[in-house]
Amino acid sequence: MKSKSSVVRVLLCILAGTVLFGLTSCGSGAGYNIPIVCGETNMNDICGIATYGVNYYNLGVRAGDMAADILLEGADVSKMPVWFDPSPALTVNTSVADEIGFKIPESVLAKVTGDSTLEVTRVDSAIVSSGGNFTVGILQLVQHVALDDSNRGFQDQLSVRMAAAGKTVTILDENAAGEQANNITIAETFVSKKVDLIYTIATSSSQAAAAATEEIPVVFCAVTDPVDAGLVASMDNPGGNVTGVSDINPVADQIDLIAELLGKEDITIGLLYTSAETNSEFQIRLAKQHCEAKGYTYVVKGINDLNDIQNAFIALKDVDAIYIPTDNVLASGAATVHSVNIGG
Amino acid sequence: MLDTLLAGICQGLIWAVLALGVYISFRILNFADLTCEGCITLGASVSAMLIWKEVNPFLSVLLAFLAGCAAGAITGLLNTRLKIPPILAGILTMISLYSINIHIMSLATGSGGTANLSLLTFRSNTAYAQVSSLLGLGRVNSALMFGVVVALAVSGILYWFFGTELGYAIRATGANASMCRAQGINTDLTKLCGLALSNGLIATSGALLCQYQNYSDVNMGVGSIIIGLASIIIGETLFFGFRNFYMKLVGIIVGAVIYRVVVAVVIYSGMPSTDLKIMTAGIVTIALALPVIRKSAASSRLLLTFKNRQNNRKARRQKKKQARGAVEGGRRNV
Amino acid sequence: MSEIMLELRSISKTFNPGTVNEKKAIDRVSLKVRRGDFITIIGGNGAGKSTLINAITGVFPVDEGEIILDCIDITGLPEHKRARYFGRVFQDPMMGTAPNMGIEENLALAYRRGRRHGLSWGISARERVLYREQLGRLELDLEGRMTQKVGLLSGGQRQALTLLMATLIRPKVLLLDEHTAALDPKTAEKVLRITEEIVTGDNLTTLMVTHNMKNAIEHGNRLIMMNDGRIILDIAGAEKKKLTVEMLLEKFSKVSGSEFVNDRALLS
After folding, report:
1. How far does B201 lie from chain C, in Å, by closest CA?
2. C1-85+204-268: what CATH class?
3. A183: nearest CA partner in chain B
4. H or E stretch including C225?
5. How many CB atoms lie under 10 A from the CB of residue B290?
6. What's this model's pTM, rounded to 2 decimal places?
């Protein structure tokens, strides 16, 4: 009796093993090769085929301009509209397209204008380690390619403007290293040091700076929806000491780009995002609205972390293309997304 | 500089409430509870959501406390009823709180998936703003007063609570559960009470933090358990030798304040903030190593007394010799 | 008031059933303990002595049988609910006290054994007087160190304190599980003397497990010997008074059909 049941058990194990092996091999071996359009260029460089992407360096440059206007020209922060890039440049990634065996139509390729990154030459002499005409504190949430870019762009442009005006600036560059407890500590340190302006990168850092001061001008960057975040009263009329640059990407244009890439209107788009990210949630809402308006079919798949990517692809295996908004978790896992997609 | 110190103290007083909560689970109950990281956000989310719903900010802190108690009780039930090991039980509650916190914040905005809830538009409606306008003091000074009152009140209540019959039973549960059962204490229940209280305090800290920094964010709990433990260890090291329970609690408050002040000073001094994490590890390591250093210092003192004793013995031997010599000399004289 | 204080009706307990480690620790044990009995329980390693005590106090549920305490069936009660009826002292001196709490705090816990723990003060001034007086009975100079942490006490002091805690509220049955085994001979003797004083002084119904045959013979009015999870010998009254270690060994080999192989029991 006992030996019989153990034989059955062994057989079951073998069966289960075969099924599992079969599943994993068709999961990772074959690959999905679905064309992906990302919300931002950094991610597009790794796993996307084409996008109208905001360039975080350029956003930083724009924020640097705003800071210079405030410091040098005494511009009124409360009346300084939040800026966003109305027509980001189109970039294509032919190597990923080749890898998944997708041919980008000529019509799309014709629109590419080349590298859109602004050329700003940093004037090192305008940035002094102490005793500058102005002191600017930079509060960045976490080390991250896109956020680092917007920090660099800001500093470069600020140095150019300072040099042009014959002034110098001292920059206090702080990073909360992903620990939000440090946001408010850094913000309050800037306030007690009586800096002339605080530049904040990412939503929670910006909120902490806004909480720490109602007098010192705060210029933010990499905030998708500054109104929702409570930073400004409205995009055109901030109404307080806070303004800045939104990194909202042209979601509608990006969705249309998918149709253009596929060369048809009858399409199913997979919308992949991290369900815990406010910014992504906001973009997915926009994407759904646009799909409905244009009559595209869509499948929404929210993930919790990078471990869910494999499952997400299983769920989205029948879509024509995948749209990934500007999303911190997926951006950090862009390489994983790519390797799952090509079945590496 | 003074402003930085004061701001550091303000934050330290908020984190002190968390540290006291962590002290209850880790030290008193001897339960490595990782619910903390989800629970501080729970407190922040509940409080922020209620302020959005125009609930009194002080009341929102109290309700956040209750929400935290519930979270702690769930960890307790997972451990006592389903026999899931403490660390795993805490992690399970922590990760489920991630989703729950987003749902709570979504209640305020009405749109699903709200991971960040701003209080900036309600900034005059936070407890800190109300205290500030009541006292007519600035943001930091009033926050300091409020923080001191809260920390003293919480530590006072804890001192009272752990002096009650139930408090005794909870302390004994952490020390020796089998003895407790022999004394007729339902250790499942005391564990549950202790964890509920612990997480209630952690959520309270989260509620205060969110009203202080004017936002709640689903990721704001990252690293909070380390801050709590570091505060406890610093407090215990500095207040080593105090046997009074109240002084131990005060030690933890002081520990939390010192921790935040050190972080603030490090940032103020312009040390690159990429090194913040290694600095945190450094503070905790030093605090942890202090007892060992103290012990080795004590043992070297022991060595000294040992040497003294040897010297004394030598001296005594010589004296004896002299005395014997004198006796013998005396005999000879006779 | 029944004459029988504790009755075990054919209780059994098997550990790890259905595995290679299966062990029948107690096997259909029946026992009637009369009010005021002071029973010593003796037996080799693995005879089931401690399991018997743990079954009575409810550390685990028994597989079959009933436990009747003073006419009440307590078989289904959880450990903490039975605790009010029993005073317990464990073999390990660490087991019976909370080391990070003071002497008086430990006593206060014992003083509330089996009661609901509410939000009134954990200890009162009136109690302190009582504890001081009780600690005085131990003659260990503990009455002047009431706030000291129990963790700083020696093993003997702890066992004496645990004994006091077990009897501070008069238990229906006092259960001593080799409570002197971990102590040095001199301390063990002292703790035994205190035990005898308390048990006879308060006329407590007591079960004392011991590995020491001499102690088992010297103390109590009844002796039980266990082997392989069963009671193999039950001697009381006048017959017990005449017992010697040699007689006990002889009886053991006659009843069990084997030699009593426990050096510890013979040598001590």
Report:
1. 19
2. alpha beta
3. B213
4. strand C222-227
5. 16
6. 0.85
